[in-house]
Protein: Acyl-CoA dehydrogenase
Organism: Streptomyces kronopolitis
Amino acid sequence: MAEFTMELNDEQKEVRDWVHGFAADVMRPAAAEWDEREETPWPVIQEAAKIGLYSLDFYAQQFFDPTGLGIPMALEELFWGDAGIGLSIVGTGLAAVGVLANGTEEQIGTWVPQMYGDVNDVKVAAFCSSEPDAGSDVASMRTRAVYDAAKDEWVLNGTKTWATNGGIADVHVVVAVVDAELGSKGHASFIVPPRTPGLSQGQKFKKHGIRASHTAEVVLEDVRVPGHCLLGGKEKLDERLARAREAVKSDGERVKNAAMATFEASRPAVGAMAVGTARAAYEEAMEYARTRTQFGRPIIDNQGVAFQLADMRTQIDAARLLVWRASWMAATGKPFTSAEGSMSKLFASEVAKKVTAQAVQILGGNGFTREYPVERMHRDAAIYTIFEGTSEIQRLVIARTLAGVPIR
Ligand SMILES: Cc1cc2nc3c(=O)[nH]c(=O)nc-3n(C[C@H](O)[C@H](O)[C@H](O)COP(=O)(O)OP(=O)(O)OC[C@H]3O[C@@H](n4cnc5c(N)ncnc54)[C@H](O)[C@@H]3O)c2cc1C
């Protein structure tokens, strides 16, 4: 009989401690430097590749953990180390998931290993969906993909924005409109292979946080990719479009809900990153509160400070439990009938923002300087309520799912 347990098994603990070791020994000491440089920390990614932490194998192994906790556990530790470097290490995974979710076995085998490169020549990949006028409103996407049957090529035109690793990636996964009348169901994903003419990096953004992670526009001007770069293949796309046209006519809502299921399964990952940043800031604040003396006693002796720390830790633990529940549901195929994936992302990201702000307050003047890491963690935490669906969009999804009506 399956036994309920909240305890990690030995293998999970071993992986967690191994990732934690890398986060503590390699990422933490490098975090401030790469935050200031606002550049991709290639040497750190290389170090991660050397030990197998930056590799398809590692993520595949964690992904297939039957409890679902492998990925959130690893992400929490990496983002405890540093969020900007963490995203540089896992950003490729976002593009890889795009291929794993929609690609054929051949496409997965060809492109996913190329996304990571090899130990001596590491590469990164980018997933490009957002556009200047299509952020939360994905259906407003304008980038077009037109099929040139004579050459069996797709021609991509448009501008993507806020792409993690955009322009510096070897492999870009680009989402484009193939049938404008079907809204987001008329989208398809394409591989743009390394050095394809017409793809260029636009503006690189200077950011508030996660500054070690590269974020840029990606411009596509008559980018021609072979037919085999359409993820899933043409036959499957034609079938899917035909089904969507039928469904739009008869049952539009059901189609929308099917699309959301994918996000429900991936959103807990962002929640886990947020838990990592929040925990890091909480630990700094706890240490500081125990050692900083004012009025002749450690500041934690004041209930006003101690109660904040109690609340911070409680919120972090609650966030982790929501993340783990949703990850377990995804791994075991449970239906997200209450948008539990969105719940976990919403709660954990809001907790990270709040907890990091409290940590700055507990460190006082020091918390406001770059001499202490909570200042950076506070800036980094702001991303979690924005990307992979803002907090408002998570609330919209949760409310719609619970109410069963299309709340606007
Ligand atoms: C650092 C960084 C990295 C990123 N990486 C990637 C990436 O790799 N690939 C990629 O494709 N994208 C990426 N993004 C884009 C990210 O997913 C979008 O920024 C996000 O989806 C929000 O879109 P937006 O910025 O256009 O905001 P908008 O959609 O314009 O929203 C603006 C505000 O309005 C609110 N709002 C919008 N609609 C509603 C509504 N219906 N009800 C209530 N409130 C609403 C939002 O919640 C938000 O507060 C990244 C962004 C950042 C900042």
